[in-house]
Structures are given as C-alpha cells and as structure tokens.
Amino acid sequence: MTQSHSTVEAGWGSGPGGNYEDLASQFRPVFARIREGAVTRELNRTLPHEPIAWLKDARFGALRVPAEEGGFGATLPQLFALLAELSQADSNVTQALRAHFGFAEDIVNSRSQDRRDRWLPRLAKGEIAGSAWTEIGEAKQAAFSTIVKRRADKAHVTGAKYYTTGSLFADWIDIGASGEDGTSLSAVVSRHAPGVNVIDDWDGFGQILTASGTTTFTDAPVDAQDVIIDDERFKYSAAFYQLVHLTTLAGIGRAVTDDVAQAVKARRRSYSNAPSPHPAEDAQVLQIVGRIRGAAYSAGAIVLKSAEALQRAFDAHFQSDAAAEEKANAIAELEVAQAQTVVSNLILDATTLLFDALGASATQRTSAFDRYWRNARTLSSHNPRIYKDRIVGDFAVNGTPPPYQWRIGQV
C-alpha cells in the first residue's frame, strides 16, 4: 500500500478521531514525496533541508496549535499517528522535528497568555524550533554550564550543547540553561542570531541526517520574555519526548514492512533447499514477512494507546485539580515506560528479520536496508531502556511513581 491510502486500507488500523483521515490527507502527498528521496539522501548524506521546508510550507508544525489560533487543533493521538506516517517515509525527518513538537506542546500547555500570544502565531505560520539541552564532557547532572545573563529587558546566553537535534533546520532554538544565581531556566534564541553556531558534527551510525551535533552560543541575544523558569514547562514532557522515539520506531517498522514485501515479490532467485522455487510463494519467507508486519502493527497500536495517556495528562492540566493532574502525569509516564522496551524490541527484531527474508543481496549498500536497524538501534539508546522495566516493576510492586525528568552527567 502507498502512503496515499488510509491507515485502514493499509492494514494499520483506524486513525484516532473522526476527522483523522481528513487531517492526514493534507500531509500524505508531502510524506510520499519525502519517501521518494529517502534512500538517495541516506546514500549521499544529504541533510533533509528540502523535506523539512515542504513540511513547513504545509504548516505541519502547527498540528497542536488550536484551530481558533490558526493551527490544526490536532489531539495528541492524532499528532503521534501522523508522526508514525512521517516516520514511515523517513525517520530522520521525524527525529529532526522532535524538539519542535516538544516546544509546541509546552506552548499549548502554557497558562501565560503573554507567552501564548507571543508564540502561537509563529507556530501557526509553520515556524519550527530546534533543541539545545544536553551538555557533554564535564557536564553535571544538577546544573547547566550554559549561562543566561539578564540585564533589565535584555538577556544573553553563552555555552555549548550537543545532541542539538533539528536546530540546523530550525527558526528558533530552545535552550536549557542556568541563571547567574544557579536557577534552572529555559530560553529561546533565534537560530540566526549573532553568536549562534550550529555545527553538523553528529557522528552516530544511525539517524545520520538529523544534524544532532554541536551548537555553541557566544553572548547570543535572547529576548528576556523568552527566558522562563524550567519548572514551568509541561509536566509530561519526558513521556512526550520518549513517545516520539517510540512512534518513530513504529514508522520504521512500517517502512521495513513495505520494503521487504516489495523485495520478496520482485525476487526471482531462490535457494535449492527452499520449499518453493518462487520466493513470493515460499511459506517460510512469507512467515518472516508476516512477523515483521505484525511487529510494526503492534508497535503502532501500543504507541496510540500511550498517546491517549498523554492526552489525559494534557486535559487534566486545565481542570484546576492539582492532584488529578499529578496522577494523570504519573500514569502517562508509566504507560510510556511500559511501552518502551516492548516497542524497541519489536522493531529491533523486525529490522533484523528483514535480512532473513531477502538473503545476502539485501546487504548491498545501494538498498540502504541497513539504515532501518541503525536508526532503530540509535533511537532505542535514548533514555536508556534498561531502566524502564525496573521503574515499571517498582510501580507494580511498591506503588512508586515513575520519575518525570532525568538528566545525564556527572553527579
């Protein structure tokens, strides 16, 4: 099935919400165009400036902006369903936009009308944000070395960040920093402001087109209105960002399903010890293809179920019931933690089974089938999954709520 078909026709299940097909139909031609060039970009290491520009033109980044504010008013399950479809086209593009959707989620959660008035029109136009939070080297867990200095109505930021995914393609960069008094802050700086330098030095073996490398800030100007205390950010953010990864994995699973099915159907050579002279009729090969598709389907279903928990957390935020909101946030984090090892295992297995269905010829570099495992393995290394089963087990046995935020660095 091509991406112009509905998710029902493609066998992935119905989309969330009665208007999902109408919403998705606006972007599927762009997704199809993105997928057409995915292998060429991978082989030539061509960064996805064009695909992201196409999505900006379509205002894809305005999905979560309320309709009355000029956006599409998508629910969280609808957002994640669309991100799965985009990831099926090219998971690099989804990863490059992950920070943007997290920033947009923070804005639509904001109770500050001034902040909403400032940012919702920009998001509605299609402007996008990148991210600059992680520090490496001698970085500490408890504080950032990146500093925001405020003087009256002006502010400047200085520091260096890594894993600044998507910032090279963005209009704005969302930064984690410390104030001069040690307060944990976030600030937003123009990607093109003086003193901002985004470097494409990402050297990971997967997600190679996301420009997830270094960004430095040298006395870069920041509007003082765009400096906020970190505690004011939306509370289910850790679950949100992790679910983007799981959604991207689900999309990779769908892409693997498409490619392996087409390759098996087109294959003419078979082994002398195969049960059929035609691969498309080989029961064992068909079984492998079925396992891959089942893994992709299951991953997508789990992702959408987890997205419902995030939607409940979002809804609880506006009900003026702090206890109910806290509970909804904890359950959202728990559901995504429960999903993490399962989804990552499903897709890592599927991206390996691909080669069992096609044999050694599938390892040819020109096919770029290896990108699926490399990308899945890279995504599965974020927010280490080895801790998730313990966290979930601690909740099940002892009622211990999962931690919301985490940082990496020296203690």
Automatic annotation (TrEMBL):
<keyword id="KW-0503">Monooxygenase</keyword>
<dbReference type="Pfam" id="PF02771">
    <property type="entry name" value="Acyl-CoA_dh_N"/>
</dbReference>
<dbReference type="InterPro" id="IPR046373">
    <property type="entry name" value="Acyl-CoA_Oxase/DH_mid-dom_sf"/>
</dbReference>
<dbReference type="Pfam" id="PF08028">
    <property type="entry name" value="Acyl-CoA_dh_2"/>
</dbReference>
<dbReference type="InterPro" id="IPR036250">
    <property type="entry name" value="AcylCo_DH-like_C"/>
</dbReference>
<dbReference type="InterPro" id="IPR013786">
    <property type="entry name" value="AcylCoA_DH/ox_N"/>
</dbReference>
<keyword id="KW-0560">Oxidoreductase</keyword>
<protein>
    <submittedName>
        <fullName>Monooxygenase</fullName>
    </submittedName>
</protein>
<comment type="similarity">
    <text>Belongs to the HpaH/HsaA monooxygenase family.</text>
</comment>
<dbReference type="GO" id="GO:0004497">
    <property type="term" value="F:monooxygenase activity"/>
</dbReference>
<dbReference type="InterPro" id="IPR050741">
    <property type="entry name" value="Acyl-CoA_dehydrogenase"/>
</dbReference>
<feature type="domain" description="Acyl-CoA dehydrogenase/oxidase N-terminal">
    <location>
        <begin position="38"/>
        <end position="127"/>
    </location>
</feature>
<feature type="domain" description="Acyl-CoA dehydrogenase C-terminal">
    <location>
        <begin position="250"/>
        <end position="382"/>
    </location>
</feature>
<dbReference type="InterPro" id="IPR013107">
    <property type="entry name" value="Acyl-CoA_DH_C"/>
</dbReference>
<dbReference type="InterPro" id="IPR037069">
    <property type="entry name" value="AcylCoA_DH/ox_N_sf"/>
</dbReference>
<dbReference type="InterPro" id="IPR009100">
    <property type="entry name" value="AcylCoA_DH/oxidase_NM_dom_sf"/>
</dbReference>
